[in-house]
Specification:
single chain; 285 residues; alpha/beta; Arc Repressor Mutant, subunit A; D-Maltodextrin-Binding Protein, domain 2; 3 domains; two-stranded antiparallel sheet; disordered C terminus
Length: 285
């Protein structure tokens, strides 16, 4: 069976519609529909029920999810192992969110070089949703990201728990809503922030990347939430000040991997991530 058929099936199951899956896969809806028809002919069962709301799995489709995931992941592992460079016995693909790669992922790459020199490495920096998709389809072995949402078949292991703190350029530690900078730290933070600061839900400036937001804050002034270890040096030199009475929020760095994808090499790689995270001092974004 063509692996692309299984990949297309999983995309529709995840997106909930043929149109969204076509957009994700950079295909036309006609091509997606043709692949589903071919797959259903192979299996002899309908896999989706289409309606105005999108597409939902039939009972046969629900049973096929686990098998399709295994097919795609198995193919990707086989492809990566066959394509290993000379002198390397194994290969690992790791991805991280933009805000977490330095120093965690860079330090891990150095650790792997010294401890596992026989392993070929590929490191990618991508958005959260893309990382989770790639772990699911087997094109990545491990993904390092903040507060990942639960997904069936994926294991989430805590590496490091940080705190997000509100800081301001005002020496008195006061909060001026007109100068508030909203930093998008993900869905978990957004929910906690909304509960604590409903009046700040429409901030005049919103930024989705920590380094960019911090540079803006230091250059223009105002207040916003940042990782505690990042702003500690700025607080120490008197450039930033904690906002009085503002709550702190948890910001957990985790490694995510497929439950069915194990082995000694990945276990050692995760051990390295835990060791690096335990030693990490996040001095910059």
């Amino acid at each position: 069976m063509d692996i692309d058929l299984a990949r297309t099936f999983l995309a529709i199951a995840d997106c909930g519609s043929f149109a969204a899956a076509a957009e994700r896969l950079h295909l036309t809806q006609t091509a997606v529909s043709a692949r589903v028809r071919s797959l259903e002919q192979h299996l002899g069962r309908p896999l989706f029920v289409r309606n105005k709301a999108g597409a939902r799995l039939t009972p046969a489709g629900e049973r096929f999810v686990r098998h399709a995931t295994g097919l795609v992941q198995g193919w990707e592992r086989a492809r990566q192992q066959v394509a290993l460079p000379p002198g390397r016995a194994h290969g690992i693909g790791v991805g991280a969110e933009p805000s977490i790669w330095q120093p965690l992922l860079s330090d891990w790459l150095v650790w792997m070089h010294h401890v596992c020199p026989e392993v070929a490495l590929r490191a990618d920096v991508e958005p959260r949703e893309r990382l989770l998709e790639r772990v699911e389809d087997g094109t990545l072995d491990l993904a390092v990201l903040y507060n990942p949402p639960p997904r069936p078949g994926l294991v989430c292991e805590l590496l490091l728990e940080e705190k997000l703190v509100m800081v301001t350029t005002a020496p008195d530690g006061g909060l001026d809503p007109r100068r508030y900078l909203y930093v998008d730290w993900g869905p978990s933070f957004a929910a906690s922030h909304q509960a604590a600061f409903a009046e700040l839900s429409n901030a005049p400036v919103s930024v989705s990347l920590g380094p960019l937001a911090l540079g803006y804050l230091l250059g223009v002034g105002g207040a916003g939430y940042f990782r505690a270890a990042i702003v500690a040096p700025h607080i120490a030199r008197g450039a930033l000040f904690p906002v009085r009475g503002a709550p702190q929020f948890s910001h957990a760095a985790c490694v995510v991997y497929a439950a069915a994808h194990g082995g000694e090499v990945l276990a050692r790689a995760r051990e390295g991530l835990r060791m690096v995270a335990g030693q990490a001092v996040f001095q910059k974004e």
